[in-house]
Amino acid sequence: MNPKVDEFLSKAERWQDEMEKLRMICLDCGLTEEFKWYQPCYTFHNRNIVIIGELKESCALSFFKGALLYDAEGILVAPGENTQSGRWVKFGSVREIVEMEPILKAYIYEAIEVEKAGVKVVLKTTADFPVPEEFQSKLDAIPALKAAYEALTPGRQKAYLLHFSQPKQSKTRESRIEKYIPQILNGKGINDDYVR
Question: What angle do CA 42, 53, 36 make, to 5 degrees?
Answer without folding.
Answer: 45
